[in-house]
């Protein structure tokens, strides 16, 4: 095995895998938690699942004709000779766990939220990584169009809570098991009459919808008059979609209909959507999801419908930066302690412990650094308050409490440090 050697024989991260180090890591965590919080507000319970699964879960669940399964999975044989795959997406694993633990035997819909890393062996580029993070929700066991609207609105609210405004919500309906076969035949007949190359013909045979997503301008030109699912919905599918739109209208969730939307995974039915951020360049998909009404039965469970989304955390971080948003606390701490000398260091340890116990975020300098250097650290920590403790202060039983925003400072009795700090932080 060749290690990923960098300069001086050090080892680098694998290709296409982002590291988040301070201070950007704070933004990453704040973005992720803000997205999760939106789902929490709508009654989704957390679910924690393994990052590797039996390979069959994805070939059966996500679909063999999708790029994700056919070209991008990290699949390996484990020591017990089993075929294992690092999860490329979250929905199939959630479905597996719901079936395995009988969650679908209780009250419906089952509403779950997850976050974590996913893995796809794609060609790395800006916003496209081989390990990326998603926050996802899944709602299983209800056909109510109000549930479709809820899932979409939770995504919208999640981005709004970050402060994002520059994205667009695209929506369509991909029909159900009643209207899809007829449409598929219609589309296949249309494609059969086109002068397509062999590989594209083969794609048209396996999954004709995917041909609509062909990026080549010459192919796109031929597809201008292709029949669209949205124009071929059954009355039932059409009514469902209309009701979803009506609720989104009432919720003031803006959207555009994109009847040519093609999602990368095969399980989608009926309501399907994507959040697109034009400032993200080629990888503009901020998040996406939809209904997957046949998935649970496909995986051996009850024939329950479901709907959910996956929001890309990495791309949301990029979108927030592109919109100039600062997300989450940038400060490492609220209070920074600067002791001068050994005795002061010991006393500051006690003060810091007390303040932390009161829920205040405290850091401090170590190792007898000079006052100037230590105060610089206080500044760069982002703290609002500095506590300077010298020998003279110790003798007098006081600490110098400095408001780093206003520059005001005054000696405060040791017993009153906590209230003095709290007053500045509250101001
Ligand atoms: P997906 O559209 O494949 O859907 O992925 C969702 C989001 O994950 C994308 O919109 C994008 O933001 C992010 N993403 C995907 N691949 C990468 C990558 N290589 N690098 C960075 N970000 C990426 C799903 O995965 C479905 N499981 C969503 C879902 C849940 N549908 C129903 N329920």
Description:
Pfam families: HGTP_anticodon, tRNA-synt_His. It catalyses: tRNA(His) + L-histidine + ATP = L-histidyl-tRNA(His) + AMP + diphosphate + H(+). Its EC number is 6.1.1.21. GO terms for molecular function: ATP binding; histidine-tRNA ligase activity. Belongs to the class-II aminoacyl-tRNA synthetase family. The protein is of the alpha+beta class and 427 residues long. It folds into two domains: 263 residues, 2-Layer Sandwich (BirA Bifunctional Protein, domain 2), CATH 3.30.930; 92 residues, Anticodon-binding domain (Rossmann fold). Helix content is 38%, strand content 20%. The protein contains 16 helices and 16 strands. The chain has an eight-stranded mixed beta sheet. Strands 13-12-14-15-16 form a five-stranded mixed beta sheet, with helices on both faces. Strands 2-4-3 form a three-stranded antiparallel beta sheet. β15 and β16 form a beta hairpin. α1 runs antiparallel to α5 and α1 crosses α12. The protein starts with 23 loop residues before the first helix and ends with a helix. The mean pLDDT is 94. Bound molecules: histidyl-adenosine monophosphate. The site of histidyl-adenosine monophosphate has 27 residues, from β6, β10, β11 and α12.
């Amino acid at each position: 095995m060749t290690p990923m050697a960098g300069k001086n024989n050090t080892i680098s991260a694998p290709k296409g895998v982002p590291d988040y180090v301070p201070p950007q890591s704070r933004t990453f965590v704040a973005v992720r938690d803000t997205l999760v919080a939106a789902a929490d507000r709508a009654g989704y319970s957390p679910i924690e699942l393994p990052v590797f699964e039996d390979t069959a879960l994805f070939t059966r669940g996500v679909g063999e004709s999708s790029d994700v399964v056919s070209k991008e999975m990290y699949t390996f044989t484990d020591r017990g000779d089993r075929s294992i795959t690092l999860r490329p997406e979250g929905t199939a694993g959630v479905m597996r766990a719901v079936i395995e633990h009988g969650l679908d035997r209780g009250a419906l819909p089952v509403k779950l939220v997850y976050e974590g890393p996913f893995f796809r062996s794609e060609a790395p580029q800006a916003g496209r990584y081989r390990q990326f993070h998603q926050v996802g929700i899944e709602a299983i066991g209800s056909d109510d169009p109000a549930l479709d609207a809820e899932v979409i609105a939770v995504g919208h609210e999640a981005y709004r809570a970050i402060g994002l405004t520059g994205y667009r919500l695209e929506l369509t309906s991909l029909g159900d098991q009643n209207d899809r076969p007829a449409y598929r035949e219609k589309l296949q007949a249309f494609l059969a009459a086109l002068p397509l190359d062999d590989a594209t013909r083969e794609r048209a045979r396996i999954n004709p919808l995917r041909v609509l997503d062909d990026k080549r301008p010459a192919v796109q030109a031929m597809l201008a008059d292709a029949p669209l699912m949205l124009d071929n919905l059954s009355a039932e599918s059409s009514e469902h979609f209309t009701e979803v739109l009506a609720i989104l209208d009432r919720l003031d969730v803006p959207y555009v209909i994109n009847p040519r939307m093609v999602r990368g995974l095969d399980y989608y039915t009926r309501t399907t959507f994507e959040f697109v951020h034009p400032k993200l360049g080629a990888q503009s998909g901020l998040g996406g999801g939809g209904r997957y009404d046949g998935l649970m039965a496909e995986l051996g469970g009850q024939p329950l419908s479901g709907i959910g989304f996956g929001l890309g955390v990495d791309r949301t971080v990029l979108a927030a930066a592109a919109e100039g948003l600062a997300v989450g606390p940038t400060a490492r701490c609220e209070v920074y302690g600067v002791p001068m000398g050994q005795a002061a260091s010991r006393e500051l340890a006690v003060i810091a412990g007390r303040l932390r116990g009161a829920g205040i975020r405290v850091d401090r300098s170590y190792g007898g650094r000079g006052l100037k250097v230590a105060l610089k650290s206080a500044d760069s920590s982002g703290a609002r308050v500095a506590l300077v403790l010298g020998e003279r202060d110790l003798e007098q039983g006081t600490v110098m409490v400095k408001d780093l925003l206003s520059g005001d400072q005054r000696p405060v009795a040791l017993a009153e440090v906590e209230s003095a700090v709290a007053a500045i932080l509250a101001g």
